[in-house]
Amino acid sequence: MRTRRIPTLDDLYVENKKVFLRADMNVPVGDNGEIMDNEKIKQAAKTLKELIERRAAVVIGTHQGRPGSSDFITTEPHAAELSKELGIEVEYIDGVFSSEVRSRIKGMKSGEVLMLENLRFTAEENIEGDPKDLIKTHLVHRLAPLFDAYVNDAFQAAHRSQPSLVAFPYLLPSAAGRNMQRMLNEMLELDSVKGRRVLILGGAKIQDKLKVMVHSVRNGKAAEVLTGGLVGMLLALAAGHKLDGKMKKMKDLDLLIPAAKEILSEASGRILYPVDFLVKREDGGLENRPVYAIPENSEIVDIGVGTIELYKERLKDADIAIANGPMGIFEKPESRRGTLEIVDAMEKFAKISVLCGGHLSAAADMVGAKGSRIYTAGGAVMYGLAGLPLPAVDALRESLAR
Question: Are residues 58 and 16 in contact, defined by beta-carbon separation less than 8 angstroms?
């Protein structure tokens, strides 16, 4: 990871100023839109408390879910949860940069806190691009003139290059929030660990995981990569195995397969995919099947028992093991075994165990893993430790040169 200094709250004058705080309160939500886990909200509250104590008027921007997902909801419940956490009113406003929103921001007084609507309800916030282009978006053009300073505390989204994350540091005095500052220090500490590093990549978001895998292997950031979930299924397909029909519907599969084949060939023996899977038959029954004999009409729901034992062996001499994403469909009890056993093995066998993301945090609780480092930031941690760019952090660094 890059070590060049970034500005922190210690460098920023916010007394009696209006501050735009970009937080990450993208939380798990239930079927009725209720917040299921408020850990990210608690993290954001630490920086917010400091800004309030320093008499700033603070406007909070966060995203929740992504277009088309079941958790793509309003931030109104986030404002209510944050109000309880702080013991003061956090006012929710139904909009991002409408005339009503801008008028309310202009009239804010020191110590007041305002929560904007889900930033991704604005189409521009779903764009990733060069900060110089994102500065020109309506979101940034309308909001930036209303503020005296910008604070980015959304480390969990630091690997994204979206308007609210990378554009404001080029226009306003800016700093990292306390959560961002803490996480960057911890990433530097983890990155300095010498010895054998094993990555465990599961879950979905295959494009991101494949990028981390390729970069880690090519740049000496991982001795070995163990895979499960859709990532493991992709590699099994790339190796020539026939799997269930779900994979055929995967977006950009025709582009992902060649990339997966290339890295499997390039890093032969260093990237492992499952040797067997737990599958659900058409009649609903579950059975363990080798990777070369997956029934066409079955559904893969977890890694198999052979893979679990193989991965345990590979973890026994790890100086540091870093995992992101479950090995199977973690939401269902019958397909959690792979994830739970790998998390337990990391705790027992690796000198340092690092668990990234909500699924693995839950798995750690289930198996009683007390010695692992657990982070809600999945993608950002993996990007940082793989040596990939963190655009939101780079933007804060650049703000020092303004």
Answer: no
